[in-house]
Design goal:
611 residues; alpha+beta; Beta-galactosidase, Chain A, domain 5; Glycosyltransferase; eleven-stranded antiparallel beta sheet; four-stranded antiparallel beta sheet; 26 strands
Length: 611
């Protein structure tokens, strides 16, 4: 159901499609409305924020006048160019949406193409800067373009048809015949500079299509799910901030994990939690340049003293991501508060040391160039970790219910020491190996003693707890224990028994309130893909493939996934599109193929790469 069919509010999360220029992105609804756009960066204030409110908070609507028009859409091949076709009683039109690549400015192009008959169209642009709170002045320029300006921001809308103005909303009504084209171009610029100049739309579309097709052509994955893997990789590329190589966790803030609830967070930043997944997915899919750019972002972001390491950073490496509430926004379907910034950046999450050391070990194995100070920095991380690994922390899920001895945090701390030892031994690097090996053994014994419930034959969420947690898949993904170890088998069986809802995996039982937050949440899609990997490495090929097929069926009509899935409402929930979900999809497909090839060659099942 489209946003228009629902009234003035947004559509379902899965009703949206992503377009982007590797600096920012926009969400286009199946109704033809752009309801989310932050300019000039992913983490800038939104100037189209109807996704978290109504059209009064910013929307660019484009649709046939006929309210009964039916729409269908797809991406143009392996690109980020979206095509939405509207069928009416009088004809058919296609809206082509894209953000041009390779330009110094940032723009949105909306081309309306007549496909059949004659269709009456309407357009309205309601620009509202600062997350829907600042109304711009509208100024008509000499060439008929309309500039929308307030404070530091100015955007210019140009079109082939006359533009009107009504109550600080830019409008247009026109009819389009089969074979005709009408272009609308919206370009951002700083308000103290001259208005953005016009450019050739045809050239921009052609160059953008060529850019994405060239990029897609580098994909080396040739398995049975190539279409889904390729779309996930394209999504990850579109979520990459080209100037720095950083990848945002999602395009959005405050899309709820619990519809109507308060679990609403800002995901427009880069998480260290995604590090090993990102490097593995990009490198093994043929995107070494992107992996190297991301590594450079990582090294710059974590530079400093080890005790200053954060769990997340801004896309430029920014450290202060102060959380505040946009209390004028009603929130997606009433889900409040609307949070801007993310206070979790101040949390202690010991697992991130494992993410960093594990990533840099894989980078060294893959032959990526390492800066002169690289190993020195890693040794300092290990030395600091030696002093804090046995402390309670906030856990990888950023709970706000107090620190505990989370088992997965300890496993990832073990991984950090293990990968430091491997780096020293494999690459001839200096380090106190005897001390590190003794610590690694002591950590292993403690985790197996305090994090394991022998009576139930399962590891638990935290020391002394009876709760389960999907982060315990780290047991085999980190190579802490073999996947066929009885304790790992028992943990996977316990997760299947206690954390699966309607065939999908919860990250933990949020309903007990132990995470310090009200309400519940949907099944966590990344965790469900981790179960796919577990099945594959256990030799349960049919189970792995069946679950993978179930998961990719949850993608929307253009192949995008949010963070979670609400099985009761049969809807996607959480921020969208979610890099963690798409990274996990890619890596699960790679593991299934790797295991299948290994067995086909009569080799032992390889240990998967770390979490």
């Amino acid at each position: 159901m489209s946003g228009d069919e629902r009234g003035d509010g947004p559509g379902r999360i899965e009703d949206y499609a992503l377009i982007g220029d590797c600096r920012t992105g926009a969400l286009v609804g199946s109704s033809g409305s752009i309801d989310w756009l932050c300019w000039p960066r992913f983490d800038s204030g939104a100037c189209l924020a109807a996704l978290l409110g109504t059209s009064r908070n910013g929307r660019w609507a484009m649709a046939p006048v006929d309210a009964d028009a039916r729409s269908s859409r797809s991406y143009r091949g392996d690109t980020m160019i979206l095509e939405t076709v509207f069928e009416t009683a009088d004809g058919a039109v296609c809206i082509v949406d894209l953000m041009p690549s390779g330009r110094d400015d940032s723009s949105v192009i909306r081309r309306v193409e007549g496909r059949r008959g004659r269709v009456a169209m309407k357009m309205s642009l309601t620009m509202r800067f600062d997350f829907g709170s600042s109304t711009p002045w509208l100024t008509t320029l000499e060439d008929g373009a309309v500039q929308h300006g307030v404070g530091p921001h100015a955007v210019v809308l140009r079109s082939d048809v006359p533009l009107g103005r009504e109550k600080r909303v830019t409008t247009a009504e026109f009819a389009i015949d089969a074979g005709q084209r009408v272009d609308f171009v919206l370009t951002w610029g700083a308000s103290h500079l001259p208005p953005a100049a016009a450019f050739d739309v045809e050239t921009a579309i052609r160059d953008t299509e060529a850019f994405w097709l060239d990029w897609s052509g580098r994909c080396t994955y040739r398995g049975p799910w190539r279409a889904q893997v390729q779309r996930s990789l394209l999504t990850l590329k579109a979520l990459t901030y080209r100037p720095t190589g950083g990848i945002v966790a999602a395009l959005t803030t405050s899309l709820p994990e619990d519809l109507g609830g308060s679990r609403n967070w800002d995901y427009r930043y880069g998480w260290l939690r995604d590090s090993i997944l990102s490097l593995t997915a990009l490198t093994r899919s043929g995107y070494r340049d992107e992996a190297e750019a991301w590594l450079r972002w990582l090294r710059r972001a974590v530079a400093g003293t080890p005790e200053e390491l954060q769990i997340m950073y801004g896309i430029g490496g920014e450290r202060r991501l102060v959380e505040w509430q946009a209390d004028w926004l009603p929130g997606y379907e009433g889900s409040r508060p609307v949070n801007i910034g993310n206070a979790a950046y101040t949390q202690l999450q010991i697992d991130v040391y494992g993410e960093v050391l594990g990533t840099l070990y894989l980078a060294r194995e893959a032959g990526f160039e390492e800066p002169e100070h690289g190993w020195t920095m890693q040794v300092q991380f290990v030395e600091y970790l030696e002093s804090i690994w046995d402390q309670p922390d906030d856990g990888m899920w950023e709970v706000r219910g107090g620190r505990r001895h989370f088992t997965s945090s300890k496993i990832m701390a073990w991984l950090a020491i293990d990968r430091a030892i491997r780096s020293a031994e494999q690459f001839g690097l200096d380090g106190p190996l005897d001390r590190w090996k003794a610590l690694r053994e002591r950590m292993h014994r403690e985790i197996c003693d305090k994090g394991y419930d022998a009576g139930r034959n399962t590891f638990t969420q935290s020391y002394g707890s009876s709760a389960l947690d999907a982060s315990l898949f780290a047991l085999f993904k980190s190579q802490f224990l073999p996947v066929d170890d009885p304790r790992v088998v028992g943990t996977i069986e316990a997760i299947e028994k206690e954390l699966i809802v309607d065939g999908l995996v919860l990250r933990y039982r949020a309903s007990d309130g132990s995470d310090g937050l009200a309400g519940g949440e949907g099944a966590f899609l990344a965790c469900s893909f981790w179960l796919v990997e577990a099945y594959a490495t256990q030799g349960r090929d049919a189970d792995a493939r069946a679950l993978f097929e179930r998961l990719i069926a949850l993608c929307n009509d253009v192949g995008l996934m949010a963070e979670e899935y609400d099985t009761k409402a049969s809807r996607q929930v959480g921020n969208f599109p979610q890099a963690f979900s798409h990274l996990s999809l890619v890596n699960a497909a790679l593991v299934i193929d790797e295991v299948a090839r290994s067995r086909g060659a009569d080799r032992a099942t390889p240990e998967p790469r770390a979490v």
